[in-house]
Amino acid sequence: MSKYAENTMLIMRVMRHAQAAVKSRFVQQVVPKKLTIVQFNALLHLHWYGGESGMTISELGEHLGLAHSTASGLVDRLERDGWTVRRKCDTDRRQNRIQLTEKSQQLFQDRTDSATDFWHQTIGQLTPEEQDDLIKSLTRLKQVMDKPVWPSYDQLHPRDPGHVKERLEAELDELAHAKLTSMGTRFILAEMAEQQNQHELAAYLKQVASEEIRHANQIFELLGHEQGLKAALSDLIRQDRVVLEELLDLVDTAQTVNHKESLELLQRIVQDNKRYKRWFSNMFKQID
Questions:
Q1: Cβ contact 34:26 at 8 Å
Q2: Does domain 1-157 have CATH number 1.10.10.10?
């Protein structure tokens, strides 16, 4: 390897080491705050691009590459933990804008302080002459570098009709699946309400769950995702087979740790699932 190549590799290693050292110090500060990587990225985008006015959920979702429903759930969790707040838009009262709280602002101030402290400690170990030489070398390096040209937000997130349509379809698909998940939750709550003699609440929950199923089916039909009954039943049988395998693994675990209550419950669920499997398989054979 030539001396030129060796020097280039050394400079790159030093730069990467410095970046990693600054980042690791900040991560040590963030970890106790129990922020996930996705949550922290959302705060970063609000900090960089939101300004004082903040961003709408759709704008934040575009920046993060997330569907509207996913971005909305992310914001819900950040707001619950005091990192963000929703405020009405000044120009359109129908819209909410997501803004950082003082807690988040302090987080980024701590980040700046951490980086400054790192460089004070690091540069402080060099003599004044070494500092001057380093500054001259880095200044010269900056002068010979090409000025970075970043793609614009519009280039990274094209809004041509085809792209917008694809994003709409993806968000509709996610909405349909979210409704199916919500439907299961409503049926569970309805059963709990029945057990507590809250019959009116149970009836309403079941009604809403049925409407959620209808909405999901309508969305799937709109997207052209509807299946024939036999194909859908075949998919269900395959999914049940996977669930049964996972249940059997859980039974083995419960036996290993000798957790009797869990074992009894899991064994009942296994028997129920086997019964479902037999029944659906028989019905599948009878469908033309």
A1: no
A2: yes
